[in-house]
Amino acid sequence: MCYAIPGRVVEISGRVATVDYFGEKRKAYTDLIEDLKIGDNVYAQGGFVIRKISEEEAGEVLSVWRELFFKLQEQDKKLANNPQSLFERANAIRQKHQGNSCCVHGIIEFSNYCSCNCLYCGIRRDNKNLTRYRMEIPEMVAAVGEAVSLGFQALVLQSGEDPYYDEDKLEAIVREIRAKYPVLLFMSVGERSVEAYQRMYNAGARGALLRFETSNPEVYEKMKPKSPLTPLFQRGGLDARLNLIRQLKDMGYLIVTGFLVGLPGQKSADIMRDIKLTSSLDAEMFSFGPFVPHPATPLARKPTTDLPKTLKIIARTRIMNPEAKILVTMALETLYGLDGASEALMAGANSLMINVTPKKYRRLYDIYPKRFGTEMETAEHIDKAINLLQSLGRAPTDLTV
Questions:
Q1: Rounded to whole angstroms, what are the CA distances from 56 to 18, 37, 64, 85, 237?
Q2: Within a domain: residue 90?
Q3: Phi and psi at residue 324, in whole multiples of 5°?
Q4: Interatomic CA distance for residues 390 and 215, integer angstroms
Q5: What is the pLDDT, as a whole number, of residue 222?
Q6: Position 401 pLDDT exceeds 60
């Protein structure tokens, strides 16, 4: 099963291609592919054409999806019909503006070392009980190859803020992966220099996942304490982090950003500011998950965030941002399982993330305890995600600029 549906290029204008799939026409940038021609069969993710495929390969995939795709569309429309509640209104807006498209991205967590000491995070610097790991470039390339073989067209590469991966290494990671696999790469490596991000972009990365966590400067400073061990470019506080996100947007990155729901000290007014701030950053994808306390952090005894609160935020965000992609975070799935993910998708969300980190490392990327999917085989996780989407009339497509 593929986690995107191929389409056919029907028009090319400058750096933008128009791609037709099952009669729907979407646009995608051509920056990452050479010699694209009208009539080519392609995969697209995040608004970029990722790779060309043969007529035979396209035919095999489309033969599976052709009849199912229209059935899913009809089911999605029925589920979004006659909205009454807040969640139903949000889902109807999602269906009207996004159709039944749902992003399904993979994530590879390549290091759990972190120079930061965030109060809410299990891989914080002061957690001395955590076994640390780092993946070297050949192992990362192999992990990407495994994910691509499973059908993924877009991957997030995530780590703690690990200085071992300097500008040279980060650039080399992207360059070596892109040289071998035509996949859309989102980098989630925290606050780095603008130069580091520019080098990753030049090497072929096109997405950046960097959450601001809270729009409240006081809460931000409390949750992310600084020390002499904090790297210089991480000492600027919330404003510096927001400026970096804006610079990455100007650089050309697709931005994934958002906040934590339920941080100690967070007020109701903060949440509305959080939503508005995410919108103002012109994010490609909104990411906000519930706070999950970790026993090895100073917030171990703080309460988790309840599901209704998170669902209301998803719904309000969808109503305010009809065109946004809104992620069902792993934190939500960890607390509330696939039933929670289903409710989030029915409240306006339209993106899923599947952990494709090599299994021997997954439990060590312990940002919060008992993460969803950690002990699950990747194939099983994929099957559960695809079955969930199909039960709701959704299809794993992501073409639009």
A1: 21, 17, 13, 45, 52
A2: no
A3: -75, 155
A4: 36
A5: 95
A6: no
